[in-house]
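Quick one:
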Amino acid sequence: MPTKVIAVANQKGGVGKTTTAVNLAACVAALGRRVLLFDLDPQANATSGVGLEKKEGASSYHALLGDGSLLDKVQATAFERLEVIPSELDLCGVDIELARSDDHLRRVTHALQPVLDSQRFDVVFIDCPPSLGILTLNAFVAADSVLVPLQCEYYALEGISSLNLTMTRLHDNGINPRLALAGVVMTMFDGRTKLSQQVVSEVREHFGDRVFETMIPRSTRLAEAPSFGKPIIHYDKSCNASAAYELLAQEFLVRLDGVAAAAAVNKHPADSASPSSSV
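Output:
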């Protein structure tokens, strides 16, 4: 089965995007898949979240500008089957550099191709910046699908229309005709409050079965884990957030494998790859 590339994105900050990228990647790796976490966010929180230091020259910066191989940037982590392409602050300058270059929306696609050709990974998760800038657009062009974390607050749907419109344009204009919505993950859920329940109900009404059944709870242990450089399943496997991400990983793989199986027999896979599809 070819490597699947999943962009984890939401242009709104503070929604649990990087937390979901790190912990879902770790849980999918724990289930036996070979996983690459590609940190494309200049804040580099996914890098430190798996215990790697932010080092000058370690990021994808030069590879995205056509200087060097992205494969050379892949680093091992302390966690079995989970590897990382780190980020650092120098990625802040990539938006400007790429805007001046030819084929500026396909730089991640071109840089990532040797990684995919190596067949070292089953899944690549790209942690995108909290914006719809050039880096995020590059991730969308390189990805098979986009996974969107949404926090359980009333502003949850704010900005999602812009993200969905961007995906639709990339799909319909032929820039990435396979791009689909992998699903929506509700984060920071507090079952004790009517607010969380109302927001989840509203989001499910809007997105239907594209919303994952598993919801990620608010958790002090989950907030602590990044400071120790560990995904939650390696920091506190007994906490409720750890159990939630393990369930989310299982649900994610059911969707992923189901689509892969369907694509093998689908004579017109592009017809089922619109951003309104579930992956």
